[in-house]
Amino acid sequence: SSHVASNRSGSRASRTRHSRSRSVGARMGDVADGSDHADTAESAADLAARSPKRLKVTTQAPDVRASVNVDGQRQLGAAAECFYPIGTPGKPWGDAERAAWLRRASVVKRSYADEVLAKLQSLKSTFDVEKYGSLTRDPERYPLFVIKSRRWDPGSKPSLLVTGGTHGYETSGVQGALLFAQTAMARYADHFNIAVVPCVSPWGYECVQRWNPDAIDPNRSYVADSPVEACALAMELVESLSVPQWTCHLDLHETTDTDVLEFRPAKASRDGLPHEDEPVPDGFYLMGCVATPQHGWHKAMIDAVRNVTHIAQADAAGQILGLPI
């Protein structure tokens, strides 16, 4: 069994329960949803302790009436609580709800400077570490960097792009990108041009949030005239590297229990939709493209990962995240 789920959106993604690494097409715009914690400064046990515990979420029926004011204070409904502390069930958020969400989300829980920027210093002797922009929300706090192999020559070598932290709350994508640069990137630099963007969304990393401060998903925003500044800057960087065709783009992601406990309820509330449970796959998996299947490549990755961690199994319906195996 290859444990590859087919995705008709045309993207490829690889995920694990506490870490998912996504393999995508040649352009930033190809990224779609798709990780194991890795960090040279922390043990696996330390990282596991920081991951949210698995809990069952029970959702209310669509006809249950309850409301929550925009400051996040619960108000009593007919018989049940709202599934998210901001918004009114069935009603999309307005400016007041988005502002309330931002107040709730803007709590710094970890340090981008200590956990990301500090790790770039040791890489400067081996690679070109270049600033490609900063977030206007706080330019000094949130500078953006790319780690590039030297002797960059798209005309003579294939080019590889690695990005982490598109979703800032997905720790392993950020730390996995840094770990790759620290331990393995030099072995391939003679044969490939390699660019690593370890943390696309540093505000999300510090505040442990999937969305940007405007409650927009960055991973739906690698588009022209992007509404997400971090994505627009990443695309400008990719354009500046003058690669006519990327051989591979690995966009590192992670499916955590936070998806069930926070993101999915928040998304349903934001959009005024019912909230429905969806199980979090337990283990590593890949999401394949129906139009251009890569079975051999996916099997090789899954077989390699099997030596490190367990592979996600299909659910009772023979699916992963609603997609056939």
Question: Average pLDDT across residues?
Answer: 80
Strand order of the largest sheet: 3-10-8-9-7-6
Structural class of the helix and strand makeup? alpha/beta
Shape: globular
Radius of gyration: 20 Å
Largest sheet: 6 strands, mixed
How many beta-strand elements?
Answer: 13
List the total number of helices.
9
Give the end-to-end Cα distance, rounded to a whole number of Å. Answer: 8 Å
The proportion of residues forming helix, as a percent range, comes to 25-40%
Approximate strand percentage:
15-25%
Secondary-structure element series? EEEHEEHHEEEHHEHHEHEHEE
* Uncertain ranges: 5-80
What does this structure look like?
Helix content is 27%, strand content 17%. It is α/β, with parallel strands linked by helices. The strands form four sheets. A six-stranded mixed beta sheet has the order 3-10-8-9-7-6, with helices on both faces. A three-stranded mixed beta sheet has the order 1-11-2. A hairpin with a 2-residue loop joins β12 and β13 (323-324). The longest helix is centred in the last third of the chain and has 14 residues, at 258-271. The chain starts with a strand and ends with a strand.
